[in-house]
Amino acid sequence: MKANRVIQIELQVPSRTWQQMTDARIEAARLWNRMVKLHLWFRKRSKKWPTQSQFEKHFARKFRLHSQTIQALIAKFFANIETTRVNRANGEKHARYPYKKKNYFNPIWKGQHIKVENSYIILPMGIDPHSRKRQLGICIRLPKDLPEGKIVQAELAFGKLLLTIQNQVEVTKPANEKIATSDLGSIHLSVVTDGQDSLAVVGRGLRSINQGKAKALAEISQLQSRCQKHSKRWTKLQKAKYKILNKSENQTKDLLHKAANELVDFCKEKEVSKLV
After folding, report:
1. Which of 20, 99, 105, 199 would be 28's cystine partner, CB 3.0–4.6 Å?
2. Sign of CA dihedral 10, 14, 16, 18
3. Which of 151, 176, 177 has its CA nearest to residue 164?
4. What is the DSSP secondary-structure string of 28-76?
5. Residues of the chain scoring pLDDT < 50
6. Cα–Cα distance for residue pair 252/258, rounded to 1 Å
7. Is residue 237 helix, strand or coil?
8. 150 within 8 A of 167, measured Cβ to Cβ
9. How would you classify the pairing of strands 160-170 and 198-202?
10. Which residues fall within 8 angstroms of residue 141, CB to CB, at 6 or more apart?
11. Spatial distance between the Cα atoms of 233 and 70, rounded to a whole number of angstroms
């Protein structure tokens, strides 16, 4: 029996393509901010919220992004709106619709519009609405040890490319299906049990990372408040802030990856075939 397996990998991008990536992320943020502003306008006037297809028609060819990238960002925005609406209906009154202004936002490309040629991945860009000329796509070299499969999504982050790869693997259905359950939380990242034995993965490390990040960012923000915005000193502190955020993100991913491995090892040891 075959099943689809999805792999997410992270590729560091050479600095020569950073400017192109930054321009794309700024343009994606410009689209996101427009959607946030438009959503607030409709809410204040109690008007009927437009459909996703109406949004796609409204924003078509108005940004320096590929048409499918614009549609992917609109779909993500509508998903956020729907999630907040459901949470509020379930009594979570603190749930907020998207409201923060973004300076950068990760653009997304779907698989059918991603080209792979001669060990390079090419992310197409749209037509510049001002010059009416098609922009050059973002070209990034792929590593030789890239997992086999089809690239179904690409996302540009700060200095890196996030790829989602899908392939098919052979799986065997176990004769006796044994089920375990897991409860996720913050004090304990997960508590998993098969009904007889249990395992608790402590979340102290993740809380430590978040507290350290918050403290470091607060110190930098205090120093920046004494500087003129966009001055050399302010810019240097801003780069230090991004470095802290990037390091914290990497530490969090590493910790969660290790926690997931602990759960998988527990399930293997107890011969669990399904985790709920």
Report:
1. 105
2. positive
3. 151
4. HHHHHHHHHHHHHHHHHTTPPPPPHHHHHHHHTTSSSS-HHHHHHHHHH
5. none
6. 10
7. helix
8. yes
9. unpaired
10. 14, 119, 120, 121
11. 36
CB 79 within 8 A of CB 85: no
Chain segment 32-67, per-residue pLDDT in tens = 999 999 999 988 887 788 889 999 999 988 898 999
pLDDT value of position 90: 82
**This prediction's pTM:** 0.64
> Exposed, middle or buried: residue 98 (CB in 10 Å: 0-12, 13-18, 19+)?
middle
The C-alpha atoms of residue 265 and residue 199 are separated, in whole angstroms, by 11
109: which 2 tokens?
């490309």
**E strand or H helix at 241, and its extent?**
helix 232-269
pLDDT given at position 12: 87
Q: Checking DSSP bridges between strand 274-275 and strand 179-184, what pairing results, if any?
A: parallel
CA-CA distances (angstroms) from residue 246 to 3, 45, 111, 116, 251?
34, 39, 26, 28, 9
Write out the two tokens for 6: 């999805």
